[in-house]
Structure formats: C-alpha cells, structure tokens
TrEMBL record, chains A, B, C, D, E, F:
Keyword Acetylation: no
Gene3D superfamilies, per the entry: Macrophage Migration Inhibitory Factor (3.30.429.10)
Record-annotated 4-oxalocrotonate tautomerase-like domain positions: 2-59
Organism: Thermodesulfobium acidiphilum
Family: Belongs to the 4-oxalocrotonate tautomerase family.
Protein name according to UniProt: 4-oxalocrotonate tautomerase
GO molecular function, one term: isomerase activity
Length: 61, 61, 61, 61, 61, 61
C-alpha cells in the first residue's frame, strides 16, 4: 500500500506516464511515509467513446 | 463528482451507450442535485473470458 | 452484470439514492438489454475531506 | 454480491484464470455464506507499461 | 500485483475475512505464480443501504 | 478527467493528504497536459483489518 488507480483518456506517451508514475511515487514516499516499492500505480487508459462528461462521450466533442 | 463506473460485458453499440450515458446523467442531475458537466461516467467493457459468475466465465456459458 | 459503482459526496438522502438506483436500473434494463436483478449498483459515499478537485479538498471550499 | 475485481499483469492462461475463478468462488461460498451464482469476479488484465511499482513500470524491469 | 478488491455486504466476522484472505492468497500463489507477499487484498464493506440489486437496496428487502 | 483513486491505510493527517492531493494535481497538470480543476482525486481510507498482504491482515502484523 498505497495503491493508486489512474483513470485517464488514452494517448499519453510512455515518457509522460513514466514521469507521472515517478512523481506520484515520490509524493507518497515523502508525504505518506512509505517506501517506494510499497507504492503501486495502475493506469486505466480509456477510449474517448468510453468516457462521458455532461451526458456526452468525449468522442462526441 | 459524482463519478460512475460501469463494468459491463463488451458488445453494446455506441447508440446504446450514448443513451445510457445520457439517461444516467439526467438521473443524477435530477436526483443528486448536480450540474450535467459535473457527472463523469466511465465504461469498462469486459470480455466474456474476464467475467465469472458462479465460478464459470461467461465465455464458458 | 452490469455493475455500477457510484462515487459521490456523502449526504444524499435515502429517498434520493433510492430514486437514483431505481432509474439507473431502468436505464440499463431498457438500453443494455438486461434483467433488473442482473443490475448491481454500489454507492461509495465519500467525505468532503476525501475528495479533491483542482488540488483542493471539497472540505476546503 | 460479493463482487471481486482482480487487477493483474496480463498473460495468465485461460486455464489459470478458470482455476482462480473457481477457487475464489468456492472460498466465498464456504466462508461468506453466499450462493455460487451470487459471486461475480472481474479480471482487469493490465499491460506491464500500465503497472508501476517503486516509481518504475514493470515494462522497465 | 495482483490486487484483489472485494466489495461485500458488511457484517462478516474477522475470522471469516481472515479465512477468505488466506485462501484467496493461496489460490493466486498456486495459480498465478506469484509470491504470497505480492498479493494485496482490499475489503470494501458496504452497508445494505448502499447496495442495490434489481433497483432496490438490500436494506429494502 | 483524469480521476485518481488512492487506496491507503487510514491514519494520515489532513495536512499529509492535502499535500498529496496538491502535488499529484501538479504532477498531472504538468505531465498529462490537463487543467487543475479537471483532476479529481478520491481517497479510500481503509482500516488495517480490511487490508491483507501475504494472506494476513495489517491488523495481524
């Protein structure tokens, strides 16, 4: 623990996601007082036709 | 907020999912007293070989 | 299936949540072609100090 | 109910996953006092580039 | 990894939940080829008024 | 979007959680190219008797 699940619109590059994972891990190590290897981060990349805001899919916008 | 995650068997059409997203948003606007754009709906389409009921995968039925 | 998880700010009344559950079930029966008893809805009521938007907790707003 | 979501690294065979679903269902029937068909198990197979431990993706290890 | 989240109706005893956690861990060690300490199990105990089946909360049944 | 859910052992202070929310939001704004208010972070604080690692609850350790 902790376990972080990130639901986000697909399309971010490997470099972006690596940086996100690195920084979030550092944030939790520093502020939640845990070891780096205790931090698990899961990315759920979602297609625009699977995310709706205000009743409309992102693929409709 | 609110955030609604729908886990369902893959295969619904875009039209079906659009109608589901539209109606669920209306339901929450009306009953949870929120603005439409505050409502986020995420669809997790799952393959039949990733859903088990009664110890058997849907792909086995 | 389907399984719907609703993450929302705590505080809605039982009446509001009953109406939400009723309408969402009807929406999925009508549009996803499933039986009412196949629809499971889970409410995760969250405290304002456990929901952050724009880097601030709702309890700070 | 109960609903079990399993987040795991993609790559397990159908046979492995069938056995996992079968045994977990038996465990819950025996220990949670529920009927087999009440137990729903969802598998979220994740790519190694979507799982980070200690700030590094499994695809980097 | 793997990470198992169990959504269930509150009320199971500590003994029941210990046995569930023990057996599910064994199942994954045996069938998913992982070490015991790699298996994380999270229990989300839900109140009957937060679980709806067929449009009705368990607290209404 | 994005939506971040953090499952963690209960007990972190408000100050710790505010700093976590602030830094994670900054990380996503910078690396996922989104606006701060688009970032939603949900904390699921779990009791030690609801988290099992290696088949044992944290409350047993």
């Amino acid at each position: 623990m902790p376990i972080i699940t990130i639901e986000l619109l697909e399309g971010r590059s490997e470099v972006q996601k690596k940086q996100i994972a690195k920084e979030i891990t550092e944030t939790l190590v520093k502020n939640a007082n845990v070891k780096p290897e205790a931090v698990t981060i899961l990315f759920h990349d979602l297609k625009p036709e699977n995310i709706a805001k205000g009743g409309k899919f992102l693929s409709e916008k």
